[in-house]
Design a protein that fits this description.
By secondary structure, the chain is α/β, with parallel strands linked by helices. The chain is 40% helix and 15% strand. One of its GO terms (molecular function) is ATP binding.
Length: 501
């Protein structure tokens, strides 16, 4: 189906953008601050909202106003990376349009949050590869051309996610629309994957030269980018025009929360203005000292899931569940055996969940496990339980069932660590060492393992203490039990290779 999106006017005629072609060829928008770049993105989002699912990576919170007019779900990024990855996967499943609000986070947190979100959409199951318009504003933050003040790890993760979006996202239905203030600050391998361009006003020679090269213009024509008015762009690409085409972007229905400053007249001169400024008024003296307001709490994950569920199209008729043609008990035994094989692999602890999940699916096919395969969230939960090595007798106890219930409030990436310690408390075993907890978390840092236990204590889930011999004990008030004393520095319960390291 061909859908033409009216972006504005070109030489007095309507300038339309072929939405289906855009989904296949991606778009790059460039313009200095104040050139109308965000206005262009808003126009594109508003015009295409009825036709395609949209995801906006919003570092400044300017696009949250789309929620009131077009029903976008606003996801506050002040969450763990595991939560953002899970939400992104469910977004693809339920085909909901979303604005990821990164406002209030520092640059490194924004990079990590956006990377987790983009990777979650990229790793979605094949059944949910529906077309999605992924708009990334200020793309130079997430795909910088050179290293900045952020850590190399954060830059590598964010750049990898952006590269996946622009290079490999098309086959998964992800159509990247990236906007940047300066082409020179954007990684070349990310910018080079776009086939459509909208170039706005820019002043630096290096940016004008790159814009002219991308549009196939001569270097002497690059001066025109200095003279472009606000909201005017030069378009090129199969979705809009085969030749460079000046376009004036049309009006929008919604507005950003932040607007350009406007000049207002100053008040008339006041005598003795110095005393008015430096001396508090009687009303101010009577008031208590002002306190900084607490930051607004992010929307709970449960509320976002409820919004996503409401966005599902109503089924014309309820489908009856298909009859089960296999033994469920046999299926559970086979799945448990596959999970045990993965846990026993010494290298599995340090591999990403997405890679382990692919390994799990392959092993299930080899063993001919009947029925639909486990989804990624269910696999992560079952893998966390399998890492505890719980026996059947303990697994059937009320204390262990209560421990499983408590673990549901723990972030997904920490559930394995929590359950390993809880299992030791339920069975009265010695507290696991730092090395064992680090391995369960997928790291070799003992210091990070100790921080995880402190995190459980801060959440009120556990209480840590040390006996007279320096051995660690972890108590669980809700379970009414505690671990036996254990040496946090012992290495006899981890593989020899890790112990040597």
């Amino acid at each position: 189906m061909k859908v033409g999106i009216e972006m504005g006017t070109a030489s007095g005629a309507a300038a339309t953008l072929d939405l289906e072609e855009l989904l296949a060829t991606r778009l790059l928008v460039q313009g200095n601050s104040g050139s109308g770049k965000s206005h262009l993105l808003r126009r594109l989002l508003e015009q295409s909202a009825p036709w395609v699912q949209q995801v906006v990576i919003d570092p400044e919170g300017d696009f949250v106003t789309l929620a009131d007019r077009f029903g976008h779900v606003v996801v506050d990024a002040q969450r763990t990376e595991a939560e953002l990855t899970g939400i992104a996967g469910r977004i693809r499943q339920h085909r909901a349009s979303v604005v990821l609000n990164l406002e209030g986070l520092d640059v490194e947190q924004q990079m990590r949050g956006a990377a987790a979100f983009l990777n979650g959409m990229f790793d979605a199951e094949r059944d949910y590869w529906y077309p999605v318009l992924v708009v990334v504003d200020e793309a130079q933050l997430f795909a910088p051309a050179v290293a900045g003040e952020v850590s190399d790890e954060a830059r590598k993760i964010s750049l990898g996610a952006m590269t996946n979006l622009m290079c490999r996202g098309r086959k998964r239905g992800l159509a990247g629309v990236i906007a940047t203030q300066r082409l020179a600050k954007l990684a070349k391998n990310v910018a080079a994957e776009a086939s459509n361009f909208l170039m706005g006003r820019t002043f630096l020679d290096i940016d004008m030269a790159r814009a002219a090269d991308l549009l196939g213009m001569e270097r002497r024509q690059a001066e025109m980018f200095r003279d472009l008015a606000r909201g005017h762009f030069v378009a090129l690409g199969p979705a809009m025009s085969r030749r460079p085409l000046p376009v004036a972007i049309g009006a929008v229905e919604t507005s950003a929360r932040s607007v350009s400053p406007k000049l207002t007249p100053l008040p008339e001169a006041i005598e003795d203005v110095q005393s008015l400024i430096l001396t508090p008024s009687p009303e101010e003296l009577r008031q208590p000292p002002a306190r900084r307001p607490r930051p607004v709490a992010p929307t709970p994950t449960a509320d976002i899931l409820e919004q996503l569920s409401r966005s599902l199209p109503e089924q014309s008729a309820a489908l009856e569940p298909a009859p089960t043609l296999f033994d469920q008990a046999e299926r559970e035994v086979l799945i448990a055996a596959v999970l045990a094989e993965i846990v026993e692999d010494p290298d599995a602890a340090f591999r990403a969940d997405s890679l382990l999940y692919q390994d799990f699916l392959v092993r299930c096919r080899i063993r001919r496990v009947p029925g639909e395969p486990l989804g990624l969230p269910a696999f992560r939960r079952r893998l966390a339980i399998a890492k505890t090595g719980i026996d059947e007798t303990t697994a059937a106890s009320d204390a262990w069932q209560q421990a499983l219930a408590l673990s549901s409030d723990v972030p997904e990436d920490l559930q394995a660590v929590f359950l390993i310690v809880a299992q030791a408390a339920v069975t009265g075993s010695p507290c696991p060492s730092d090395a064992a907890l680090a391995r369960a978390y997928g790291t070799q840092s003992a210091r990070r393992a100790r921080r995880l236990l402190s995190f459980f204590e801060e959440r009120g889930l556990a209480v840590l203490r040390t006996d007279f011999h320096g051995r660690r004990v972890v108590a669980f008030p809700d379970l009414g039990c505690e671990t036996a004393p254990g040496d946090p520095n012992r290495v006899d319960d981890v593989p020899e290779q890790q112990a040597a390291e």
